[in-house]
Amino acid sequence: MSEFEGLTAIVTGGASGIGLATALLLADRGARVACLDLNPSVDKPLLGLKADVTDDASVRAAVEQAAAELGGIDIVVNNAGIGAQGTVEDNDDAEWRRVFDVNVQGMVRTTRAALPFLRRSENGAIVNVCSIAATAGLPQRALYSATKGAVQSLTLAMAADHLPEGIRVNCVNPGTADTPWIGRLLEKADDPSAERAALEARQPSGRLVSVGEVAAAIAYLASPLASATTGVALAVDGGMQGL
Ligand code: NAD
């Protein structure tokens, strides 16, 4: 398939996990893609650009460079995100600000910088990477869940604001996906294989979601095939939300 022929995309957090898999899939289907990341080491044909989504100047510079080098921006995948564990008693105010700054305001900064380019596109599309945590009521994930709940609400509000400009905004809500992030989490567990089994059992499919499965959902929502779809949260969670 080459439904992204002639289109350009930026992917934040595009050097690892879900972001990298998405960037590679979009490129494989014909898009010119820039990965904006703290550590932008990606192979060609991807363009790696250093950016910190918590720093407005850094985001603006990277988005403008991406637009110049790719020839505009049609698609934004707001994917950069970090985790947080614990109840409301376990994270202090500084940690709440830090995680919201990356997971929520990072998307706002990137979108703000990219909107002037998206307005010139015939396929202006934004996909925010949310999480099943937005709605699942997961234990020990108060702060992380709150950021993803905000991402889902932000997606709906942005969809309403930018539909008149021809820009679609959707989010994907993955269940636990097999990424370096989850690898790091398992390494820290007392019993990594028991912890992995617990994560697998949480999803009705009995397994973790693959990065390719999340990337496929993001690619659909970003593509002209989804031209009538805006303001949705697409679960990619092995049946966790539906069953
Ligand atoms: P990952 O840690 O493998 O990759 C995240 C990337 O984001 C890294 O390359 C990192 O350098 C980059 N990043 C972090 N902070 C950044 C910043 N301030 N500026 C720019 N880049 C930054 O993580 P992943 O598992 O692929 O997660 C990607 C997204 O998917 C996140 O938004 C996460 O919340 C979401 N998600 C992940 C899972 C899962 O189970 N892995 C499930 C649901 C949602």
UniProtKB/TrEMBL annotation:
Which keywords has UniProt assigned to this entry?
Oxidoreductase
Matches recorded under PROSITE patterns: ADH_SHORT
Matching entries from InterPro entries are given as: NAD(P)-bd_dom_sf (IPR036291), Sc_DH/Rdtase_CS (IPR020904), SDR_DHRS6-like (IPR051122), SDR_fam (IPR002347)
This entry's Gene Ontology molecular function terms read: oxidoreductase activity
Tell me yes or no: is Oxidoreductase among this UniProt entry's keywords.
yes
| SUPFAM superfamilies listed in its UniProt record | NAD(P)-binding Rossmann-fold domains (SSF51735)
Q: Does the record bear Zinc in its keywords? A: no
Looking at the record's lineage, which domain of life comes first?
Bacteria
Which family, according to the similarity comment? Belongs to the short-chain dehydrogenases/reductases (SDR) family.
| Descriptive protein name | NAD(P)-dependent dehydrogenase, short-chain alcohol dehydrogenase family
What is the organism field in this record? Paractinoplanes atraurantiacus
Q: What is the lineage of its organism?
A: Bacteria, Bacillati, Actinomycetota, Actinomycetes, Micromonosporales
